[in-house]
Amino acid sequence: MGMIAIGDIHGCARTLERLLADLDIQPDDHLVFIGDYIDRGPDSKGVVDRLLELRKTTTCTFLRGNHEDLFLGYLDKDEYDIWAINGGIQTLESYRDESGAITIPEEHIQFMRDTEIVFETDEFVFVHAGMRPGLTVAENLENADPQVFMWERSHLKAAELPWEKTVVCGHTPVSEPVDRGNLLNIDTGCVFYTNASLGMLTAVRLPERTYVVTPFSG
To answer: Which of 26, 59, 66, 215 could pair with 150 as two cysteines, CB 3.0-4.6 Å apart?
Structure first.
């Protein structure tokens, strides 16, 4: 079985479609999405529609990014302001229908609730943002803190990481994928296409570590 990890999409539905075509997905491939499907980009609803369709024909694991967490905070705790300034307004607009009403389908809400915090295999651990750099993978998982897995950044500046497995993550935009042995960061800032060094949606095929990078197209 082939495994493919896909970075932060952020509402870029057309770019996602192009990446999926570029990947030439095979029947036995397993796609692991790193999270942040929504917010900031032009068509968050379209992204979720496509992912719901994709999982009918392809094995998929959907991790929870901090933006899905913010979305759920808005739904469950009425935490609008923090979500709005992080791209939630664009997401709500993508759900506005011809009459002007904003309606989020229950299937989309359930998709967000069903996202996973961490996904582990024999060789890899997939989380949205990262793990604490001073702990082993086993210690991180034993002391599992979803907020760390969805928001952490300090591992990117650590000189060494005591991780016994390779951690695959996104969350922090980088100009090209970070491949440091036991750390892979595949968020190449698709939605930040106005920045000349970003604006790419990246996937990595594992364990080969071969990359497919698709430029922003909407």
So the answer is: 66
